Automatic annotation (TrEMBL):
Keywords: Antibiotic resistance, Cell membrane, Membrane, Transmembrane, Transmembrane helix, Transport. Belongs to the major facilitator superfamily. EmrB family. It is a multi-pass membrane protein. This is DHA2 family efflux MFS transporter permease subunit. Residues 21-465 form the Major facilitator superfamily (MFS) profile domain.
């Protein structure tokens, strides 16, 4: 017999110790997220200094993103093995050291190799930080705490182009890497003091066969989608072949994991319809966020002929709207639960993207207003989805859930960026306005898909046998 969602309890007080814990994790997540977009704006400068081809220089960014995908599947096992907080500090220390080495790289080849290792360490930071918070904070306050982490995760990529453009205007590109060193050192010192440095539990050996499947399949899917966006056509060697092998690898991993007693990632979590709906929302929300981060800089540069710095400044309302709404989304989640709040945020995003698509020749002020609204919708939807998903899974499966969610966000982001770039590239033959008008309608469709995921999550929570409210024991993550 099903029961509807119970009335949520009053939000619990958050102690200073919990805020310090969230602040430490947010600082490390900010450093890792900043590097995702900060370097993209410097690729042309790096190419000129090292006298490299554009294809070679592109691997400074692509190598980092592919390495992120490689490390995500193993972080759940590593977190259980050595302890989530210890893994976080080791990954942060390695990221900081490698950032310094990137800033001192003598040639393009060494920079690419260092960026791969940097991506491997950065891929561990966000899911491990989410695991630490999910296990330490408890129900009734997780929304507000996760919102602080969400500010760092979402604001860093949004600020990357602006900060990178301003730094390149007066500093060497090497400072785009060296800026991570003081951030990392401060986060490590604070982490050693405030993080719960419990040792990991003994666990089964890693599922190397499963890791081989997903460790090959996931980066190939990301690479194929990224290449599709760069080339604008489904080239066989760089798009279709990697995609085919990557999808086969992921399918083999799922088949292997469902038959193994102790898989690398627990696929049994997908038996819960609420968790499936949350993951669907996350994947399309990732496609919308990453795709918009690529679409609108092109919009300003091709339609308004803005330069790099001006484009970065034009993008600020998007990140600002997200940063403003994340804390409100967290408070509403702790008070009303995640389902309705996530649906409200996704609904706002859908309305804004629809207004974008319906607008003909929008003025600069109106575009800024819509970007701000898009950021608000994204900020209002992200944290509630995360909290609701964490409430569904048992406490000891949180490492699996954080890894799976971040993997789906990465796949969705690669798909969204590729899709929007291909639509714009193909539409330019009929004029820039036609190209972006078409892309904005696809953006609206992506927002609708994310909305359907959040509505499915809300419906699943309302009809669950265990009402997932902040006061309910199951929402604390107990097995």
């Amino acid at each position: 017999m099903t029961r509807v969602e119970a009335e949520p309890a009053a939000p619990q007080e958050i102690t200073p110790a919990i805020w310090r814990l969230a602040g430490v994790i947010a600082l490390g997540a900010f450093a890792g997220g900043l590097d995702t977009s900060l370097i993209n704006i410097a690729l042309e400068t790096i190419q000129r200094e090292f006298h490299a081809g554009i294809g070679t220089a592109q691997w400074v960014a692509s190598g980092y993103l592919l390495a992120l995908a490689v490390s995500l599947p193993i972080c759940a096992w590593l977190g259980r093995r050595v302890g989530a907080a210890r893994l976080y500090l080791w990954a942060l220390a390695a990221f900081t050291v490698i950032s310094a080495l990137c800033g001192l790289a003598p040639n393009i080849e060494s920079l690419i190799v260092l960026r791969v290792f940097q991506g491997l360490t950065a891929g561990l930071l966000v899911p491990t930080g989410q695991t630490i918070l999910g296990q330490a904070v408890g129900p009734g306050r997780l929304g507000r705490v996760m919102a602080r982490l969400g500010i760092a995760v979402t604001l860093a990529p949004a600020l990357g182009p602006t900060l990178g453009g301003l730094m390149l205007h007066s500093l060497s590109w090497r400072w785009l890497f060296l800026i991570n060193v003081p951030l990392g050192v401060i986060a490590i010192l604070l982490g050693r003091r405030y993080l719960p440095l419990a040792k990991g539990a003994s666990t089964t050996p890693p599922d190397w066969i499963g890791y081989g499947y997903i460790g090959l399949g996931l980066p190939l899917v990301v690479y194929g989608l990224t290449s599709w966006g760069e080339l604008g056509s489904p080239d066989g060697a760089r798009v279709l072949l990697p995609l085919a092998i990557g999808v086969a690898g992921l399918a083999a991993f799922v088949r292997h994991a469902t038959r193994r007693a102790h898989p690398l990632l627990d696929m049994r979590l997908f038996r819960d319809p609420g968790y499936v709906a949350a993951c669907t929302g996350f994947m399309f929300n990732g496609a919308l966020s990453f795709g918009s981060a690529l679409l609108f800089p092109l919009y300003f540069q091709l339609l308004h002929s803005d330069g790099v710095v001006a484009t970065g400044l034009q993008m600020l309302p998007l990140g600002l709207g997200t940063a403003i709404m994340l804390p409100l989304g967290g408070r509403l989640t702790d008070k009303y639960t995640g389902g309705p709040v996530a649906a409200l945020g996704a609904g706002l995003t859908t309305l804004v993207t629809g207004a974008f698509a319906l607008s003909d020749h929008p003025g600069v002020v109106f575009v800024q207003f819509l970007l701000f609204g898009l950021g608000m919708g994204t900020g209002l939807a992200t944290t509630p989805m995360m909290v609701a998903a964490f409430g569904i899974v048992p406490r000891d499966r949180l490492p699996d859930a954080t890894a799976q969610i971040n993997i789906l966000v990465r796949i969705g982001g690669a798909l969204g960026a590729a899709l929007f770039s291909v639509i714009v590239a193909r539409g330019l033959s009929e004029g820039a306005e036609h190209a972006f008008h078409t892309a904005l309608w696809w953006q609206f469709g992506t927002a609708v898909a994310a909305l359907l995921g959040t509505l499915g999550l809300w419906a699943a929570l309302r009809t669950s046998d265990a009402p997932l409210t902040p006061a309910h024991p199951h929402s604390a993550g107990k097995a």
